[in-house]
Amino acid sequence: MRTLLVRGWALHLIALASALLFAPTIAAASVPSDTLRARPPAPTAIDVALVTAVIPGYLSARGLPPITGSLIITDTGLVFRTSAGAVLGSYPLVGPVRRRGSRDHRATTVALAYVANEGKHSSYLFRLDGGVFETASPGPLQELAQHPAWLDRVRSEEWSTDRPLVDPADTDAAVQLAAAISSGAYADSLYTLFGRPARCAGLVGKGGRDRGRLGEYIASRDSLALDPGRITSEAQLRHAFTHELAHRWQRRSVPELRALWAGVEPVHDSRRYGYASVGEQQAEAVAFAIHFLQTTGAGIGSVAAGLELLDHYELLMPGTRVLTRYFALQPIYRDHPLRIALASRAASLQ
Ligand SMILES: [Zn+2]
Asked: How far is the CA of 63 from the centre of ligand 1 (A)?
């Protein structure tokens, strides 16, 4: 059972606040000169060092499965780097100016969503723009999440916006991309698990777009539809494609899925897709499970590391673990490095 709680974390508050206020790149632009106030001392190497923090954890960007890496806090913002060193996301320390009633305020970049307690371990889940960052050691991130007053004196920035894979007005490019994802090697591997739809993937219609859908499964035509004009990454395209194929499989595997799903907890995060909908949670858990098997298929440091990574998928999308074990037993994953470990854990739990 998970409980929700917020804990204070004060160790770095003063150091972090003073380092940010005194850092010339941030404070000078937003604090007017005032001869009645003492001038702040010049920044020191120690100030800058204190504001820099590296927090290991997992980023789930735009609802996608978690990626292992570190969130780096600097005096200019937050950057998430994957374990391989790639920059997956960057965020300002504080968001753009917004008007609430008659007052301006700066949107918070970091907000603590909840703390999940699993046995002795606590996982802190923070919202970052359109993503969720999970960590066991939040450090100064917890202070940022409480939006201390000094944060409003930091120069605010507009959010960076992701560009879609194709121009939303370019229907031909969207059609080509939908056709490509549904006829490539990735799709073929999924068809062996979920079956092949009768038609190639098309585009989401106006009704679906108005409802904000990135993909749809149209059961009456046994066809998928995607909206590449609003999909911003290859990972998101694959995720949407897998999610919709999962809906196809769902309709054809009702008793099987019901048996697998027994005891799976619902989604706890009200902002995550799949919340309060078992059908959508199942489709998301399928997409998470496939992502896990694909990601770890080329090998992972150790079996223990692989199973631990799966725990983080499960935390964000309950049901991922049981579906991963199920799919790992299918012939397509006969050479998967975690197949035996997943199978034996499954057996031990029956
Ligand atoms: Zn769905």
From this structure: 13
Count Cβ neighbours within 10 Å for each residue of 216-225 and write b for 16 or more, e otherwise: bbbeeeebbb
Q: Is the Cβ–Cβ distance between 13 and 144 less than 8 Å?
A: no
CA–centroid distance, residue 247 to ligand 1 (Å)? 7
Predicted model pTM: 0.82
Whether 39 is in a domain gets the answer yes
Phi and psi angles of residue 64, each rounded to the nearest 5 degrees, phi first? -80, 165
Query: Mean of the pLDDT values across residues 10-17?
Result: 32
Q: Ligand 1 center to residue 326 CA distance, Å?
A: 20
**Within a domain: residue 285?**
yes
Domain hosting residue 268, numbered range: 253-350
**pLDDT value, residue 51:** 59
C-beta of residue 348 within 8 angstroms of C-beta of residue 311: no
Report, as an integer, the average pLDDT of 134-148: 89
Residue 244 alpha carbon to ligand 1 centre in Å = 6
* Cα of 221 from ligand 1 centre, angstroms: 16
158 CA from centroid of ligand 1 (Å): 31
